[in-house]
Amino acid sequence: MKHTQFFLAALAMITVAGCGSGKKTDEAESEMARGSYSGEKNKVTVVRLERRTFNKQLVCNGKLEAQGKASLQFAQQGTVERINYREGQAVAAGAVVAALDKSQAQHQLKQSQLAYDKALLQLQDRLLDYDLTIADTGSMPENQRRAVFINTGYTEARMSLENARKQLKECELRAPFAGKVIDLKGREHETTNGTFCTIIDDSRYQVRFSVLETEYPFIRVGQKVMITPFANTQLTIEGSILAINPTVDKNGQIAVTATVKGEQGLIDGMNVKVVVEDSIADQLTVPKSAVVIRDGQEVLFKSANGRSVWTYVKVVMSNSAEHIVEPNTERGAELNIGDSIIISGNLNLGDNVEIEVEGND
């Protein structure tokens, strides 16, 4: 029993001591955080705090699509005689991409030409009965002219000749616009079957991406975008928003189309990062490196009289290089234009630590 009473009394004392120390936990942790980064003299670089224009950024994923795309196929069946271009090669507008064997079409054209010439002679003989020539047929009554043309076989022969010329022309597959050949499916000496190839106009690309409904007020037609392929992060190309689909889909997103000039290194279907930019004037802007996390809070350090000044801030907005900041007044912080802000050498910096500023302040 005595042992039990002693144990309970000791437990009660520990509990009371624990409750008393809990009241100062936040203050102690904050002070420990400040002190834990104290050390010997630190070399730092600084910039002067000023209000500047901030480039607000919205980052999305998108996909490139060539601005023009046409699937080509022969209008008639036949054997492919030659292919003039390979996949990836540039082609001019109207250039012959491939051609069928023309021997049968040329033979049909000759026959049609002979039939036409024969019908024309018969027409001329018939017109002599009316003391007329071919040049006079325009003055004949419509019904009479039509009857003469049909009875002499002239109308049928002319239509056959036109059709033969068309079939010969269709033996050649021509590019409807300048671009590049992709998805070549045809082969020489094989019979045509369906789509032969596709031509894309890669002089410009459309970039399709989506933004959240809440981001809709931030975008507008004509707004600048920066396009970076995932396959080549060193390449960044400027474009602009072409169209915004005025509807929200089932996923709460809005479809946006931008346009960008074709460049070496861009290809149809490529996945890209899209950065939409807008300018916000008169903001307290600092490099991202100026803000560090201490005690779970956003902090930057000012330089004053050769020592560091721990300053709590709130990051209002960020882009790839900068933050918009404001002082965390709930923690008694303040920021003033012209303050010297430490931007390097601050990773292990503490409050009120002696520092050496490198370069120009």
What does this structure look like?
The protein is of the alpha+beta class. Among the domains are: 92 residues, conserved putative lor/sdh protein from methanococcus maripaludis s2 fold; 90 residues, Efflux pump adaptor protein, beta barrel domain (Elongation Factor Tu (Ef-tu), domain 3, Beta Barrel), CATH 2.40.30; 69 residues. Helices cover 23% and strands 39% of the residues. The chain contains 5 helices and 18 strands. Strands 2-8-11-10-9-12 form a 6-stranded antiparallel barrel. The protein has a 3-stranded mixed beta sheet with strand order 17-1-18, with no helix packed on it. A 3-stranded antiparallel beta sheet has the order 3-5-6, with no helix packed on it. Helix 3 runs antiparallel to helix 5. The N terminus is likely disordered.
